[in-house]
Amino acid sequence: GSELLAHERSKSSVNVDQLSTFLFTSEGLARKRRVLKVLENEKVFDKSQNYFAGRVDRFETALARAKRLRQLAVRNGWSNDDRLIANELISEPGPYGLHESMFLITLRDQGNAEQHEKFLKPAEQYKYIGCYAQTELGHGSNVRGLETTATWNKEDQTFTIHSPYLTASKWWIGSLGRTANHAVVMAQLIIGGKSYGPHPFVVQIRDLNTHETLENIHVGDIGPKFGYNTMDNGYLLFNQVKVPHISMLARFSRVDPKTNQYVRPASASLIYGTLTWVRSTIVMQAGGVLARGVTIATRYCAVRRQFQDRDAQEGQKSENQVINYTTVQIRLLPLLATTFALHFTGKAMMEMYGANQKKMSQDVGKVGGPERGAGPEETHSGSDLLADLHATSCGLKSLASYTAVEGLEMCRRACGGHGYSSFSGIGPWYADYLPTATWEGDNYMLTQQVARYLLKSARSVLKGNEPTNDTTFILTNFLSRQDTGAAFDVLGNDADIVAAFAWRSAFLTFEALKHRDEQKRPWNSLLVDFYRLSRAHSQYMVVKNFYETLQASPSATGLDAETLAIMHKLFRLYSLHTLESEASEFYTSSAVTVRQIQLCRTNAVMRLLEEIRPHAVRLVDAWSFPDWQLDSSLGRYDGKVYEDMFYRASELNPLNKVVVDPYPDSKVLFKKNEAAALKSKL
Amino acid sequence: GSELLAHERSKSSVNVDQLSTFLFTSEGLARKRRVLKVLENEKVFDKSQNYFAGRVDRFETALARAKRLRQLAVRNGWSNDDRLIANELISEPGPYGLHESMFLITLRDQGNAEQHEKFLKPAEQYKYIGCYAQTELGHGSNVRGLETTATWNKEDQTFTIHSPYLTASKWWIGSLGRTANHAVVMAQLIIGGKSYGPHPFVVQIRDLNTHETLENIHVGDIGPKFGYNTMDNGYLLFNQVKVPHISMLARFSRVDPKTNQYVRPASASLIYGTLTWVRSTIVMQAGGVLARGVTIATRYCAVRRQFQDRDAQEGQKSENQVINYTTVQIRLLPLLATTFALHFTGKAMMEMYGANQKKMSQDVGKVGGPERGAGPEETHSGSDLLADLHATSCGLKSLASYTAVEGLEMCRRACGGHGYSSFSGIGPWYADYLPTATWEGDNYMLTQQVARYLLKSARSVLKGNEPTNDTTFILTNFLSRQDTGAAFDVLGNDADIVAAFAWRSAFLTFEALKHRDEQKRPWNSLLVDFYRLSRAHSQYMVVKNFYETLQASPSATGLDAETLAIMHKLFRLYSLHTLESEASEFYTSSAVTVRQIQLCRTNAVMRLLEEIRPHAVRLVDAWSFPDWQLDSSLGRYDGKVYEDMFYRASELNPLNKVVVDPYPDSKVLFKKNEAAALKSKL
Ligand SMILES: Cc1cc2nc3c(=O)[nH]c(=O)nc-3n(C[C@H](O)[C@H](O)[C@H](O)COP(=O)(O)OP(=O)(O)OC[C@H]3O[C@@H](n4cnc5c(N)ncnc54)[C@H](O)[C@@H]3O)c2cc1C
Ligand SMILES: Cc1cc2nc3c(=O)[nH]c(=O)nc-3n(C[C@H](O)[C@H](O)[C@H](O)COP(=O)(O)OP(=O)(O)OC[C@H]3O[C@@H](n4cnc5c(N)ncnc54)[C@H](O)[C@@H]3O)c2cc1C
Asked: What ipTM does this complex have?
């Protein structure tokens, strides 16, 4: 294995360091090295027994790790970025997960000064440990349908939190099952018999000393899952639990205790802000998530040899590396290109988010009070940046997480039988990542938001409004050229590839608009079209971002000519492979001809595979995953695949400390069981 | 939940009993009921704690189950079919899995009379417990590349079995890790320094009394996997282990101990027979495998309500069942159609297998000795049924297992968040089924076999030979009509749908032939085309089988007119949805026009979804899975989804018997741990 990878690395001139630096910056890389050094030396983070234990034991280990990580963060004075890198390196969801994300964020964003003092401060000190309890057994996507109630009692100025039905039970709530002693609970606010929709309440659920559940609260872990088993996702029921007025997070809306009146939020913008930020983060991470699988599969497929090439000459009698088979290449290399495409898109998404935050804070003061900004429905100062941002984050979250999920499984299968072993490192990672396709907006449902935005933009363009952003620009351009037709040279010109993707997206937008506005088709009958539309538009954005990233000046990218040339090929591979996979929308919209698709499929893509193949190993090296993070026999940097598989199976496997009685008529199952002894030895 | 499902069932006139009987025969259904009654009453098969335990404990339970099942089979005089149904109901791979399949089959098919007496008999009595050890750490797909050697020692008429490298270690061998005391070992036969390729040897590996490993053998479990963790897949290394002459299974080829000469097999046909049979079984089962997921998701999506319909009238204010959303329908209903399509194809595949077996036994005696029949390369008596069977089983195995795998995951995701819970019953089932895409021929690699067969058939047709089977018939038909063109009325005529699929397959065949024979392109550069070709041809076969099944006389199907009409709609849904998903190959081949595809996508398929929707629940009922088998909260027949989720989480979940200390600075992890107590209570 080692020689094969060494040889692969010697064949390519891709500059790994330059490319890594371009992806992560040198500070980012240094940070990773620094944090890794700390973690590697802590026995509690040893990964070698991760897959053997039962649920209770795995959770116990995860709790120990979470605690230790917090101690290390304090002791080493880690920044938030340091902590995030540490989590990435450990790669295991843990019991503080939701405390450290949604609980703290919600307290910070939605609490007022008094509440920051009362809740946020002890939470930041881990005296309060919390979770974010929105989803219920009966309602997830439909937040307005939540059944938990918070009824205002004007007599004693309290709220009564109550779960009127079994389906009102909070469910899936991370860190709640066993760990949290507080929860942010989303509940229907009821004042004087009238409902004002879901609002956030901070509720203590367990005793701070005994950690036993408080009275009239029923809480627990929801049980085993496809992955995420080191996290205690929980359920929570309230039987008329009273909480004081301060429990309702009051930065945006509140109940005035003097008048018993509901005070409306000035704007929903900042609330949308959090959701957009969470989705943008998912987009940002998707490239790296997928890159783990691609790194493992690429290295393994360069080490794995199987069969001789059918057309091989007499001389080359050794077995072929499986990465040389075109059916392996067609699975792995477009995914390799996708990792970069997603990474650059994630960066652009984050920049867009930042620009919007800046814009909103500039707008503050101009219109309304200090918290006022542009909501997705009520846009002002002539800009619809926020609506754009909202739709972009929805569409890209859906596409990016879908792509990463599908791609990881594709990588696992490309490894043949050994991909199925947990030691491949792909399966467990996939299983833990999978819910990303469902949470923060189910990937199918989010596409309705994108379609709604595109329809609105198209209506505005049809009215003759000047384009104000990229979306309205491509729609306007489509309209003006619709009758002269498109003739994009997708095989010869990179800018034309981007234009063809824009064309298809605009075409589908106007088709959908026709169905809805002219033919008055019901919304529900168009959901499938909307899904396709959102996918098409999001793919356009990815292609565009990849293209623009490579247009930056050489000094901005810091890449030498050879490395940049390979990146251009990866751009073409991602784009043309996507184009031919989605071929039918491209013809139907007349963006390309049937002949172009055929040439793309049989010539262009196949040639790109051949051209990129020699650089595959160095390209994945640029993602710079330490072995400790990958925890994979197949993906080892040094290629010692078989040695590592064998060592893990024979030396670290507790099942081998058991001797069975194999005969059906004997009641004895294990004649000998020294599995526990191995565990304590390690 | 209950009322919703009752309402669903009352709305549809699909005759569930008729359809079940058509699928499984009344004997099949009775058998299932009878076996279920036995299993349900055995505490050891209780499934409620399946997902909590660690690997060692899960394996122990699986061993207890395997033993008990064998006892029950003996006590109740179960037939092989009874045993298979029992395994299906239990739905968990177990430590006797490979003993009861490949070990016994290989001894039976490849052993001679003396070997049957010596090995098969004790194996059938579970005195010998065995496995099938072919794959090695370094070689799986490429069987000729195996490195384990079996060297003939003429001095003492023994073989020396040896593993010369680490990569020669047997790997992945089911039932080997802890359970088996014997193995059929595939090893390179070497006589007088010359290698004769891989042959099967029966080798004892553990002591029959102590079950300790025999000398010079290194054996163990390979460790945790993505699924299949109740099975002890193992590794095995030999250090110069001597076995007697009788150990080499000698029905086909053998070493003559007098002359020390290798005796060649008369024909490879029966060996191919076993592989074909195993693949055919996979095809046969794929419909049912997928139907489990479809049953669960369909029932749950009929119970789950979320949001009001956007265009709903004032009156209908209750929330919409999610199965009413077209983005849910487009995922589930084509899969529902697919379950039937695969089931009928599996039946046809099995009939084809049976016909071939019959033909081969007729041929016996005509040509050569008693074991002689037509091998896939050397066809005779004018028939290429065996070659056809081989290619068909390869193509369909690849397509069917791929479809089932992808479909199960699609079903899981359609269930939103709750699909991720193990209590959905889909995830664990999916994880255990997954290796079917890899074993018995990796799904990508098998497609080369199909392409090779189609190219051969096309060459024969081009030479002007008369068509001898369906494949050569459709190729001939294509050639004759190629210049007049096709005009298939896929939206109006069912037979034309089948013809369009045939056309596309024939078109791709001749394209591939042109690349290979005219343009002399390297084999490796065509693998991606071959993959597409195999997929296209296999989809044609599925469409054709579905169509033909419904053409049978009403008395043969036993279905009333209404039920049959729905089945026709399912046929169209499967076919047209496949057609539009693979649209580009259909235009490129001119089998259909762009306009037809558009109409198919936006009209025909959407209308079929609407028409089939009311029957969805009854259609899945016809698959007649008992709740005990599904073991799913979401898929319960009575729709009590939430009650069951809650019960399992709160009452059966050992993690809830633990009280943690949540603070990072405290060394205590669990303040209280009564998890073990719950287990013993249950
Ligand atoms: C591992 C994990 C951790 C989680 N952690 C948390 C947490 O910490 N806190 C928290 O509050 N929640 C959490 N959740 C819950 C998560 O946010 C929800 O599961 C998610 O929002 C999906 O909602 P749902 O389950 O209600 O899906 P559903 O809405 O029930 O979806 C079911 C199906 O219906 C479809 N559907 C529903 N409505 C429509 C519509 N209008 N149009 C078309 N199709 C529709 C969906 O596409 C899907 O196929 C977690 C979930 C998981 C899996
Ligand atoms: C759960 C499980 C149970 C098993 N049980 C048994 C058992 O009981 N007994 C036993 O003997 N074996 C068993 N196996 C092994 C199984 O049969 C092999 O894993 C399988 O045949 C795949 O072979 P491989 O792992 O060598 O894949 P590889 O051949 O290494 O495949 C790796 C990649 O290379 C590609 N590739 C390889 N060769 C070519 C080519 N010529 N052209 C194009 N692409 C190529 C493949 O498509 C794949 O993407 C089991 C495997 C699993 C996962």
From this structure: 0.96
